[in-house]
Structures are given as C-alpha cells and as structure tokens.
Structures
1.
Amino acid sequence: MSRIDYSKWDHIEISDDEDDTHPNVDTASLFKWRHEARVQRNEEKKKERAKKEAEKKIRAQQIDMLRARKAKLEEEGTLDAKEQLEKVNAELEKLEQYHKDYLKKEAELERFEREHPTWDVDNISKEKHDRTIINPSKKEAPKKEETEEEKVETMSEWFKKNGKKAQKFAHISKQADAHKFLAENLSLVCEHLASYLVIYCVDLAVDPETEADVPVCARQTIMIQYILELAKTLKRDPRECVNAFFARLATADPQYKAAFDDEVAALIARVKKRAQERVAEAQEEMKKQRLGPGGLDPYEVLDSLPAKIKEAFETQNTPMLKEGFAELSPEDAAYHYKRVVDSGLWVPAPGSDLTDAKGDGDDDGADDDGADADDEEEAEADEKTTKDN
C-alpha cells in the first residue's frame, strides 16, 4: 500500500499560528512584524534573481560579440589580426567558462529549491479559478421622447440658469483648475454645456475685443465633448467620467494628446468660419432693413450719384439738388431720379414728378417734402451708421 509523503509540510513558516507568546509582547504586532519581514525577504530575493538574469543576458551578448569578432579576424588573416585573435580567444574562453560555471550553479540551486521548498501563507497555495458575478442592473423605464420644441425650451432654460457658470468655465486656462471647477459643479456636465460653449465660442470670435479668448474656450469645449464621448462608451453618467477623463489626459501618450489638440484646432477653424458667416448675415439683414421702397440700398445709390447731386444730398441743399438734376440730360436725370426715389433718398410729394426735382413745378411742396425726407434719411443713416460701428 502506497504512503503519502507529508514531509513538505514539516517546515511551513506561518507567522500567526503561535498562541504561546510572552505576556509583555503584543501577539498581533508580533505576527505583523514577522509577516512584513518575510515579505521583505521575498522582495529582496526577487530583485537578486532579476539582477542575475540581467547579468546573464549581458554575458550572453558579450560572448556573441566576441565570437563575431573572432570570425571577422579569422577572415582577415593579417599579422595584426592574428595578434588580436589570440587576445579575443583568451577572453572568449574565460567568459564562456565563467558562464558555463554560472549556469551549472544556477541549475543546482534551482534543483535544491525544488527539493526543499520554503512554504508560507503567501505561497502555500495558488489560485486556480476566479470568477466574479455581477447582478444585472435594473432596467429603467424608457424616458419619454421630447419634441423639438420641448428640447429647445429645455436648452433655453438651462442656458439662462447656468450661462454665467458656463462662461466662467470657458475662460479657465489651466487643466487642474478646470478639473476642480467641474468637480465642484458636476451638475453642469451634460450635453447642454457642450452646446452652450460652442455658441459662446462663436460669440467671442465675432467681437474683435474677445477674439483672443477663442482658443481657451475651444479647448474647454473639446474637454466636455471628450467627457460625453467617454460616458457614451462606458454607458455611464457623464458626471461619473470627469475624474477618469482628467486622469487619462494627465497621463496620456503623445498620440492621444496630439489627437486632442487636432480636435481643438478643427473647432477653432469652424468657429472662425461661423463667425464670418454670422457677421455677413448681420450685414445682409441690416442692408435689407435700410432698403428703400424700390428695393435699392440708399448708401449704394448715394455713392453712384453725380458729384453735385451727391453733395446736395449730403449737405441737404435743395437748390443745389435741383441744379444738379437740371444739368443732366433727360435720360440721366430720369435714371438717377428713379434710383433716389426707389432707395428712399428722395421722398417726393404726392403727385410730383421729375419736373419738381428740376424746379419746374411747385417748388414749395417738392422742396419741403424733399428737405423733410433728406432730414429723415440723414438721421436714419446716422443712426444705422452708429449701429454698424
């Protein structure tokens, strides 16, 4: 009948299996110190083993280099090469013998350790199987889909409530300060913040005085967009991903940071383009508002008038205006008269025509109406010019 060998259990080092200790010694502390000492010895053994492995690799590389040099010298066959070859052979032989002895001792040591293992509570057993079971989360009831009007209303309310805080975040230039601000205002971390920052970027770009703040605001915008994307990937609430994002950004590799900077640069380019479009749209809208009854722009018409008529309008000189029209040919006078009327520069009295502009008809009615119209147009032009500036 075969017998089971229990000898390997004879020398197990267990730090907390001794109940008989001196009354003046704290048992728990004693067990703790023994365990710490054993862990420290094991760490020193690992470091020593790693050092020996490194030295073994270096010797192997040196042997390979000497062998290669030996082969090269043998091919040359010169007198100088032969002298060097003797030195290389001696060095190679010495190193190979040392390496051979080292491997022999290492093999003996490994065999001894296998035959006389040192057991303790940390290595007496190995984990063969590990499994973690996570209960499925309860599915929340699907939220009611908002209509477009409701979404706009919700976003507008959020903008009014959190606009000042969002603007404060947009101007934070330091990464650590941005992390601290979001950690203290987690309620801001949502889709509405990203939307607000994009719009605010364009607002900054439109105004020449704040255009220099666009890069900082754009960087903050991309930060929020990255946090939202991370939340979608992990299927978590964006507020739970703030710390994870900043930890990743602080230790990110150059490729990740380069991609982040590229996103910021692309957003800045889009913001500048949108700012130019908004300025053009505003100018076009102002132009539409100042168009005369005939659909002409008074500024464009004024610049195209003959010099004397243009000066008469600018100085509100009615006699000079009539003289200017009288000096034109009938065709040119009719052309320019129609344009000043269609642009609103000239508001003729009811029933008046080109002859009133030349001074051939009832001067009083035409002059008074024309002067009044000039006064109104000049005041309106001054007001619009002030707005444009």
2.
Amino acid sequence: MAIMVQLALSADGAFLGVGLGYVAVRCVQKYIYLSSALSRIRKSPEVHASEVRSLIELRERMENESNSGSADDMFIVRGTVEAVEKGNRKDSRSINLLISPDSGERGVILEQSQTCIYAEWRRSFGWRWASRLWSLLPNTSTEKVSLSIRSVPFALVEHGNPSLSDSVVVNLDGSTHQLPLKTVYQDFRPTASSPYAFLCALSGLKFPIGLLYEEKILPVGKDVTAVGICHLKDGIPEIKSCKDLPFFLCELRQNEMVSGISMEMNILKWSGIVLGTVAVGIVGYSISRHWNRWKEWRQVRRSSSSSSSSSEEEAVVAADDSVAGDDESSSSNIGDGELCVVCLTRRRAAAFTPCGHLVCCQRCASAVERENSPLCPVCRQSVRSWVRIYVS
C-alpha cells in the first residue's frame, strides 16, 4: 500500500491524476451503459406470464400489417418458478428436480462452490503511522476454488395457473447475469495453523484461513421477474437474457429497477464529474510544475554556458595580455607603422582572413571577430577569423 501511495504521488501527482482520470472515464462509460438500459426498461411492458403470448402475437400482426422492421420484443415478465419438460407439462413432484445433497431442498438451479478465504494484517505493527488505525482490523479476501452450476428446464407461470401454454420458458444459454439464488447450506472449514501462515501474518502477506462450502438453489414456487427478449419457440413463449441490460432474473419489479438504476446513475454522474475535475486539476498542476522546472533548467544551462564562454574569453584576453605585456610596457619604442590601428597601444600581431591585413593586436582582433558582422578595419571586407603572427 505504501509503495502504491508513493508511486501515485510521484511526478507531482501525475500518476494519481491519470489514475483518477481513468476512474472518471469508467464512470462515464458505466453511466452511458445504464442510461441505455434504463431507457429500454422504462419502455418495456411489465406483464404476467399468461399475457406474454398474446402480446407477442399482437406485435407480429402489427409488424406484418405495417411491413416495418422487427420491434424491440423486450418484456418484463413476472411469474412463479416451475419446472417443465419438453412437450408436456407435469407436476413438479414428478419431474427430476435438482436436490441439494446437504440440505435436501429442491430447485431448478443448483450452484455448488468452494471459496478459499484469506486474511491479511497489513502493517499490524504500525510500520506506517497513516495505516495504524486501519491495521487494527483484518482485511479478508476470497477466491473461488471451484464452481459448479446445474439447471433443469423451468418456466415462469401465472400464480395458480400451471398451464404450459400460459407460461414463459426461461433460456439461460449465454447468460452471465447474477441469479436470485437462495443459500441453503454453508460449511466453513478452517485450515490448520502452520509456521508459514504465522510468517505471512508477521510480514503482512495474505494467508488462507479456511474453505467455505456453499450450496445455493433457485427453489420451485419462488416469485421472480425476468427481463429479456421474448419470442415464440414451437408455439411456446421463451425469454432470453440481453447483454445490454444489468438484469435477467431478479426479485425486483419494474419500478424498483428504475429507481435503483436512477440512483446508481446519479452516483456515477457526480463521481465522474468530481473525479474528472480533480484529475484535470492534478494533471494540470503537474504539467505546470514540470514546465516551470524545464524553464528553470534551461535558464540555468544558458547562464552556465554564458559564464563558461565569458571565462574562456577572459582566459584568451589574459593570454593576450601576457603575450603583449612587453609591447604595452614599451609602446613608446614601437614605430607608428607597427601599432594596432584600433587601440594604438599594442603591437600588430593578428592578421585577418581572408583579406590578410596585419593591422590589429590579438585583443582587438578577438573583439572584431566577436561582432555580429566582423569587418576588417582597413578594407571593410568580411572577416572569418584571425591568425597570430609571430615576428622573429
């Protein structure tokens, strides 16, 4: 946890801003998904199982008369769970229902799972003062070890009307939605303590504390709501799940679904707005800090380069002074034709190229060369460089 916090706050919080931005984008995507689902659920009729057949036939007749494309055959069907067999309807007691091995209860869906439960005491010895309060409580996590789901054909029927013609067969093929199952058996089996678990607890790593065996069923006679696409198959209404909806089989009614989705959408909307604003602020702050640092680095580099060039010039001038020191001290002994035409105090010792005029001392020649447009003082021709002339 501490490493993640340090990583998030590194680069002036840039990683934290990007992470918050990603969460905000995910909130917006989930909001758009729920908005589409809410619109479809509001437009879908909520009917009983016995009314689905007539509504499907009515829609098919209207489509054939208008020659229009297929309409959205989505229904919200409320009914009671009953087991069925292909072709004919039988009493649920004569059908091979799924029976829980441990509880003995009967249902149409049986889910058996084994879950490994882990515990971890992160920083339980107060390695970081910020997590001392959190470390007073253990953090548990779970991991599915095995999962088995079995089902038998079942349908939603009108309460008190078990006729197959008035029922809606539920097709679970391809459905990944959560099912309204009832927990009928639980058995927690703790693992034996070991030195490895003790070392994991001391170091803050997670360690297994036991296996949880669970059995869940969808019992016969339970009132549920199915939300999906309905069509006639062999003259019998059938409903399938829709991947664009967050529900398939549930215990909620239409108004409860609408209110729940609306509340979740409001939470996602404001979460996206707040997190997005904070992310933009953090990223903008990080960019401005890095921009100011880059400008300061560039200014320091320029000042260091200018100071180094000035020190080099000073070194050249000092060398020129040391070379021409004797000439300066005895400038009265230099003839007029040998004096520098610029300063008139030192001996001529530098010839310009390409003109070749020997008219300046080394110091003045360096000053002329550093000009923006260096020109020879005599012929006014452009100067590329100068050469030291030694007179023996």
3.
Amino acid sequence: MGVAAAESGTATALVIPPMQFYLTNSTTRTAHTIPRNPQLQSRADSMAASGQRSCSSWHTQPAPPTAPATELNEGLTELEKGQGVRMLHTQRQQMSNSSSITQFLLLAFTDTRELQLLHFWLFLGIYLAALLGNGLIITAVACDHRLHTPMYFFLLNLSVLDLGSISTTVPKSMANSLWNTRTISYARCAAQLFFFLFFITAEYSLLTVMAYDRYLAICKPLHYGTLLGSRACVHMAAAAWGSGFLTAVLLTANTFSIPLCQGNALDQFFCEIPQILKLSCSHSYLREVGLIVFCVCLALGCFIFIVLSYVQIFRAVLRIPSEQGRHKAFSTCLPHLAVVSLFLSTDLFAYLKPPSISSPSLDLVMAVLYSVVPPAVNPLIYSMRNQELKDALKKLIQSVVFKQR
C-alpha cells in the first residue's frame, strides 16, 4: 500500500495509491514504496481525517485585525496629549510648592559650635541691653508726671515698638544657635514676618510723627500746646500703629500668596521679604514689582515729610539770635535726627544696595544693623543729651534701690 501526502498553501491532503505514497510539500517530493498493510491503511485514514479538521479550523479562524494608519495617528495624538497633561500637572505642582512647604531653613551665622555659642551670648547681651534701656524709658515716662508731654509720649511708643521688633527676630536666632538648628515652621515664619513688618513700619511712621512734633515745638512754639493736645497725640500715635498693621497685613498676604518653586532655604537669620521672594516662581515678578513700588512709595513719602520738617526746623533755629537758644533747640532735635539717620541709612543700604556687591555675609551684617542695633541703641541716644530724661531715670533707679534696702 502506498501513502501520498500533499501540502499546499492553504491545506494538507493525504492520498493513498495502491502501491506507493508520496510526501509532497512546496519544495521537495519523495516517493517510498512499502508493502500493503491493513493496519497502516487504517492509521493513515485517521491521520487524514484529523488533518482535514485542523486545517478547516485553522482557515475558519479570523485573522487579527490590522490597525489603520489613522487609528495609529490618533493613538499617538492621545499619547502626546497625555504627556502634555502630565507636564502641565508637574508645572502646577511646582507652582503650588508653597502649599507643600512646612518649614523654612534660616541662615546660620556659622557652622562651628564655638562660634554658634559666641553668637548666642552676643545676641543675648544685645537683647538684654535693649530690654533694659527701653524698659527704663517706658517706666520713667509712665511714672514721672514731668515727662507727660507729647515728645515723651511718642518716645514711650517708640520704645514699645523697639522692644517688639527686637523680640520678633533675636530670640529665635538665639534659640537656633543654642540648639544648633536652622528650621522655622511655615506658620511661625509668616507670623515673624508679619510682626516684624508691623513694628518696623509703625516705627517709621512714628518717627515721621515725631519730626512733625519737633517742627511744631521749634517753628510754632506758641501753638504747640493747642495743635498737639492729648487727643491729637493719641490719634497720631494710633495712626502710626494702624499704618504699620495695614502695611504688615498687605505685604505678608501678598508675599505668602506667591508660589514658591526654589526650595525652602532663606539666606537670612529671620524671615525677610527679599529672601522669600528669591524662592518664588519666575512668573510672579509682577507681584514682586508691586510690592517694591508700594514699599518705595510709603518710605519715600515719610522721608520727604521728615526732610521738609527738618529744613523748616534748621531755618527757624538759624534765625534764633542767642547761641544758647540755638544750642537748646538743636539738642532737642539731634536725638531724633540721629535715630532717623540710623534707621534710614541701614534700611536703604540693605534694600537698595547694588546687586554687584550683594552677598549672603553682607546681607546678614546689614540685617543685624537695621533690625538688632537700633532697638538697643535708641534708648542710649535719647538719654545721652536729654537732662530731663536723665533726671527721671536717676530718680527711678534710686527709688528702686532704696525700696530694696
């Protein structure tokens, strides 16, 4: 018996000739002759039947569909859209990093432990001197009825503001140096910035009011008591405190509403607006310009008022015929003029210095000069050439010493 198998491109057929079988495919053909065998014939029949069933099932199975070019392009477009959405989401996350910032890193004065302790003791001495000096002035003005005048009333308010401003920045810096840390929480940073702006702006406004007080005392002495009564003094002091509060609210809210994308490290020993703005995103420059314009307008208005007041004061003093009268008039103005000069010179140089000479160490020194030194030096300046204040302080100290004995 012969068995022949033929395979084409679509099916495979088994043919059984009488004497021989042929194995056929697309390339070769081989013939074999074998003797007839009934068992082999039945096996061949079963193989042929199973082959036909497998071929028919293979041909009836549908071919996998091929994606057209348009569907492929649509898929690529959807992929690009997905990538664009992810990029936009990443940018939004970077823009809203301020909501994820939980703390800031303040600038350390030094990394050496011995110098950190030296900084702690130095700031502690300055802080205690400011507390003692301003506390003595507040107590002397409040207890001595001879000092219940407009000038000393404003001086009392100035001492309170000095205590507030130095207490906002120095204790935190001392604690960081003592415990060898740099962190400050987001909420504490916002509170520190608010109170520092509040006290500094109110002090600047109060110095402007004090310039007007000196102008009335020297240029219009006959109307001094009428123009600056107790109610007028309270209103002017309240206006100074109110301007500080409104300015602090506006600047703090605008500063912390700006998205921060540049980390959380501040190049200053306390939270300061220029250092926080350095962490802002590039698109927020309009707000930065708005803050700068607002601060410049406020500072320039007070500065022009102070300058015009002192121009009138100097003109009036130079018209005084006696040298003793001129000396007395100048002695009442020099402490205020010295405080104003120290305040404005350090502030203006700290914020308006050229970027070419700016450096973290120089910024740190200027920040100490305008935020730490004036509150400690102002009581000394006012009591140095003021005999009435000296007498009141001496009387106060003697009463305290005698009571203890």
4.
Amino acid sequence: MSCPQACEIPETAQFSLAPSEELSRPCSVLCWDLLQTSVQEALEFPLPLRYMLLRLLPKPDGGVGSAGWSLPAPIRSDFPRLSVSVPGEAESVGGLSSRSIVLTYQEHLGVTYIILNEDPCPRMVIHNKCPIPLMLKETVKETARTEVYCRPLPANCSLHHELYHHFSSFPECRQKEMLPTLLLKTTSDHSSTDWTDPIDINCPGTQTCGVAQVVFLPGFGCLYIDVLYEKGTLVLCLAPEGGLDAVIHQHSSSRKASCRVLLSEASVVLSDDITNPSGSVELLRLTLTKLFLSLAPAPTSLPQEQGASDLGSAHISLVEVYCSNLQIDNQLYNRASFHFPVLLCQDQRNGAEPGGGPWSSEANPTESPEALEEFKRSCFLQLRMRLAGDRCNAEEVRA
C-alpha cells in the first residue's frame, strides 16, 4: 500500500476526451503510463502494469492546471469496473469537490476498450469537516492484486471514494462480508505520523445510545465519525470535537423518498371463482387510462396546520393520483338479463381523447413541468393526500 503522499505522475503524453454529446467515435490511445520502473523479477505486481489517471479540464475562465489528477486506476481484465474519484470544483458538483466516474474494461480481438461514464450511484462519499488535511488508508484483508493507494482528504472537503474491497470483488456479490477497517492520520509536516485505531464502518448510523464513534487522532485530538447509507452510497462523516452537532444532524436528517409511475392503461378484474366450478367467470372490469401516481415530500407551499414545526412538516409526504379516463365494463353482457355493456364511463366531450394523444417513452406529460400541470388539469379524477411521518395516517385528502 502506497502512503502517505499521492503518486507522482511521470512525464508522458496526455490526451483529452470531449463530452459524450461531442464524441462521435472512440479515441485511440497509443501509450500507457508505467509507474513501476524497477527490474521485472523484483516487482511485487508483475507487468503488464497499466494505469489511467483522470482529471477535469479547466474551464475557459479558470486557471491552467487548477484541477488535480485522480489516483491511478489499474487497467486490468480482473478489474472490469472501477469508480474513479476525479478532483473537481466544489461549487460545480453540488458541494462535492470531486466527480465519480465509472471506468469499465473490455477486450475484443486483442483491443482494449475503456468506457467512461458518470457514476449514478457512487460507492462511498467522505465528508472531512476537520480544519486540517487527513490521509485515509484501507486495511486490506487479503493479498492485494494491485497497488492500493491512500486517499488524501483535504480540509473541510467532501469527495468520492471506492474501496479496494469493492472493485476487487466486482462482479461477485460479497454483501455479507464485513467491510475492511479504515485508518486515519494527519498530513501536516509538524504532526505525528501515527495512525488512528481501526475504524469500523460496518455499522450504519451512530453507535450505541446515539453516540458517534470516537477515535483519537494523533497530533489533533478526538475525531467523531458517523456512518450511514444514503441511496446505496456509504457516507462517512469525519468531524472534530466542536463539530459533533453536524454529525448528529446528518444522522438525524430525514430521508425523503419520492417516485413517479406512469401507466398508459391499467385494468382490474372482479371474477367469480366460487359459484362456477367449471372455471373462473369475469364479472366486472375496471380500466384506467393514462394513470399518473406520485409520491414525494410535501412542498412548503401547501397550507400547514397552525403550530406545526418545521421538523414535523419535513416528514410529510404528498401522494397524488391522476386519471384521464375510467371505465367499468359489464363482463356478463352476453348473458341473459344483462343489457348494459358499460356501467360507468367518462363523458368524452367533443369526441376528443382526454389528456391528449397516446403516451410513449418519448411523449409523456413528464417531459416538462408545464406539460405535467396541463395533464393534471385535464384529468377528471384528481386525488391528493398528505401522509404523516409514520406513513400510516392521512392528514389531508383532496379530490
């Protein structure tokens, strides 16, 4: 494991990649950076050693070389997927000072293909709320198949990270295995070079009785650590003694779930399976056309009850159901003494189809907020319900 400073980049040729919408064809790479220059027999990791380092190109109005390089990403067939943390500007990445890039490896007819995409679900996010830079080291349980680098953590900075434990086991599922412990140390020239005690990250949330993990950081003092999962990402928060409130607030902050469902058509059938032993007989069929279901946190614009606290309103969810057309068919119409094929339907005035034309993956009301509001106004069935924080009690129902 290489520590404590980041690797040195040799003087080699560099190449740039345009954004995906501008890149019409793959970019050929004719050379690789070889970080090992010693004799082949003395190498711990035999050749070929291929690494790729990434960085974001500076903006036209930014300084040259303002963004640093990522840690070396090994290019090997036994590492088909890696999540690379590329340094960036915190203002442009939602408070994070890095971008998480998925690097996938494929081979075909002797040609190596490297594909880079934005990572929609990073493995790990680290928030360093300390006023000093830190160094993070992973305790590797098994013999490493490649160099494992320490992760520099700048002061008051948030960035992405992926453990060797994660990318070395992909695509195997090792969820039941314990995650490795982590070690921290300061990087100041005048501070101690000792590492902290091992930090357990297998227990999401604070430890017993709502108290965060506390480790002693040599040369600094007590360090409070909070671990939680957010949308599949392991979030690690490091805070000094005075920043304990930030850790507790992060752990106690509400997680707001939201989803949208669009159904072009949905049917519910009422069947008789008791009085007809020969087979099931359909009695009624309810058909819903252009159904829109939504679950989201209640916006602050909705009227709140007098005296409701901000914390209580943050846990309120809004359920919306909109239907463009509804029809109940009499499935016994062909039998004796049943004269009405349709029991209930919407009055389609002027022969126009409610809610516009048919839906498709390219044309639906979620394309824009204006189209969605127009669809909602055109629906004859509109239901809005506010759920309390326990998701069991309805506070308000509108139709």
